[in-house]
Amino acid sequence: MPENEGQPGPPHHPHDKGYKQLLSNKRVFLELIKTFVREEWVETIDADNLILVNKSYVLQDFSEKEADVVYRLKTRGKNVIFYVLLELQSTVDYLIPFRLLLYMVEIWREIYNNTLQNERESKNFRLPPIIPAVLYNGAGSWTAALSFKEMLESYRDFSGHLLDFRYLLFDVNRYSEEELIRAANLIAGVFLLDQKMQPAELAGRLQKLAGVLKRLTPDEFRHFTTWLKNVVKPRVPGDFSAKIDGILNESNPLEVERMIYNLELTLEEMQQQALLKGKMEGKLEGKLEGKLEGKLEGKLEGKLEGKLEVAKNLLLLNVDIDTIIKATGLSPEEINTLRKQLEN
């Protein structure tokens, strides 16, 4: 399969960009597989044999839904393709197994087209196995089918004759805090920070990861801060976005506590500013409401005084009450009260 062909477009979501950059580092990708996949073949994978395929296989129909990461594992003269779909949305897409099939077929089709005719028509020609995977960070549980056959009508009746595969699922919010801290590596730390939480909790979680962050290489630490920028900055106002940029750009593994302390101060300042803004908006809203109420009351009082004056003049002219009611809109009681005041 040719690398660097058909350069992928920019990921649609900020989270996609962060994860795609992170998992494009093969050691981080290997951490993902070895930390969360409990299968024997995982132990045989060597980072030196992993090759990033710099091409996206996401089809145009789904280009705004996700990004993907593709690796080729070359071992003992054989190829294995790892295809990871970054499904970073708040809702589950139940078409995932079908979409994965389309992407897998696209990879196989390209391999077929780029293999010499005499080789692909030989008895020994084999397509490489593809291990599909989905990385999901939605708050809700993943409820899509985990195997392709579950999308097929009456699949139990014909199970021996149907195409099927089961994809790996990395469900960020389903891992426990203890499990992620115990893993003590970059990808587990990223998952912990990506789990659903309030902005105020970020500094506390970073404190729990301080030991892990100190042990990162400068290159790994750069990947971590790049991911943090892509995830945190879109959630904060522009002024604070620039501050967070500055803090992360100046950080390194030897000064993790300082980085966390500065981020904590910035987030606290942001919260205080938001609180102050809310109070000011509340006061302003109260003042505006008071002014509007005052104006309305004044207008109503002015209209009533004008009607009373008209009714008074009509009474002095001995106009009958029914006519005065029609002319002013006052009630009979109000007009009788006014007449008694004139008689006295």
Can you characterise this structure?
This protein is of the alpha/beta class. It has helices at 14-23, 26-36, 96-113, 117-120, 177-183, 186-194, 202-208, 210-214, 218-232, 238-249, 256-316, 321-328, 332-343, and strands spanning 50-53, 67-75, 78-87, 130-136, 168-171. It contains 13 helices and five strands. It has a five-stranded mixed beta sheet. It is elongated, with a radius of gyration of 34 Å. The protein starts with 13 loop residues before the first helix and ends with a helix.
Provide keyphrases for this structure:
10% strand, five-stranded mixed β-sheet, 344 residues, 13 helices, alpha/beta, 5 strands
Q: What is the H-and-E element order?
A: HHEEEHHEEHHHHHHHHH
Spans of 5+ residues with little confidence (pLDDT < 50)? 1-12
Chain-averaged pLDDT: 80
Give the total of beta strands: 5
Biggest sheet features: 5 strands, mixed
> What amount of the residues lies in strands?
5-15%
**What strand line-up does the widest sheet have?**
1-2-3-4-5
Terminal Cα span: 108 Å
How much helicity do the residues have? 40-55%
Computed CA radius of gyration, to the nearest angstrom: 34 Å
Quaternary status of these chains? Answer: single chain
Provide a count of the helices: 13
